[in-house]
Amino acid sequence: MKRSYIGVIILAAILMMNLVFTQYMVHQYYYENYVNVLIFGGLNIVLFPLAVFAYKKTINMRA
Amino acid sequence: MSDKNKKIPFNEDNYTHNIERNNERRLDRRGFMKTLVGAAGVFAVSSLPWGAVAAKELMGLAEKEYPHKKITDVSRLPVGDAVEFKFPGEHDDAILIRLSENKYAAYQNACTHLRCPVFWVKDQGEMICPCHHGKFDVETGAPTAGPPRRPLPEIQVKVENGAIYAVRVKRYEA
Ligand code: FES
Predict the structure, then answer these.
(1) Nearest protein Cα to ligand 1, atom 4
(2) What's the start-to-end Cα distance of chain A, in Å?
(3) Which of B39, B47, B174 sits opposite A15 (nearest CB)?
């Protein structure tokens, strides 16, 4: 049975964004731009429900 | 025997859905996606402390003045030499360099790359990080070579009655 890999691709993209945001957040912390830290920390947190959602949406997809 | 056979027996969307199959150790697509979701969760949770500390900093709770701390006596630090001390906390390594008769420079010496201790090389007139050969300008704390991109946090010092005191850590603008 043929699988759809769109979910894997979306999740990999989310993980990539996680990495970028985390790195950015940590750097902004040391630069003492605390507002940016909050923004990117928030984005990181938002990505998790998004990932769950993407998983649920795509797990039973067939292509 | 109505539509019993058409039913899917159970929803197998759980962590052990492939536990008793052939190739159960194989990471299938579903397991891989779960790992990815889990990783996103770990990222989300690990963002929390950073956010908390940043929020605290924003609300000015961390703006406290530290008690002045004596580093050393002027007479015990010849020109061109350096001494290490802790400021403001017990675990915050710092370094004081006597540049000339009345000129001192003090920095928190955890390298801004990966936090190795930066030390003072007298005959090269540079501050050097041993880990990846980062270099810092002794006058300003700015990185001059190697991987570090941010300046070392400067510590204000004052001289009083022949002793050198650490006053506070300067905030720097990026
Ligand atoms: S830790 Fe100092 S250069 Fe890498």
Answers:
(1) B132
(2) 9
(3) B39
Q: How many domains does chain A have?
A: 1
- With tokens 């190739």, the residue in question is B23
pLDDT of A25 higher than 70: yes
ipTM for this model: 0.86
Within-domain flag for A7: no
Enumerate domains of chain B plus CATH numbers: 11-58 (no CATH), 69-169 (2.102.10.10)
The whole-angstrom separation of Cα B74 and Cα B101 is 10
For residue A56, the SS3 value is helix
Q: Which range of residues forms the domain containing residue A17?
A: 13-58
Cα B8 to Cα B13: distance, rounded to the nearest angstrom: 12
* Those residues with Cβ within 8 angstroms of residue B9's Cβ, 6 or more apart along the chain or in another chain: none
In a domain, A2, yes or no: no
Contact A14 B55 (CB under 8 A): no
Task: Check if the beta carbon of residue B127 is closer than 8 Å to that of residue B144.
Answer: no
Report the C-alpha gap between A49 and A57 in whole angstroms. 12
Q: Is residue A26 part of a domain?
A: yes
Q: Can you read off the two tokens belonging to residue B83?
A: 């001494």
pLDDT, one tens digit for every residue, chain B (174 residues): 556 666 666 665 666 655 666 666 667 788 888 899 999 999 999 999 999 988 888 887 655 567 788 888 888 888 888 999 888 788 888 999 998 888 889 999 899 899 999 999 988 888 999 999 999 999 888 899 999 988 888 888 888 888 888 888 876 544
B143 CB near ligand 1 (under 6 Å): no
Q: How far is Cα B35 from Cα B40, in angstroms, rounded to an integer?
A: 9
Identify residue B14 by its one-letter amino acid code. Answer: N
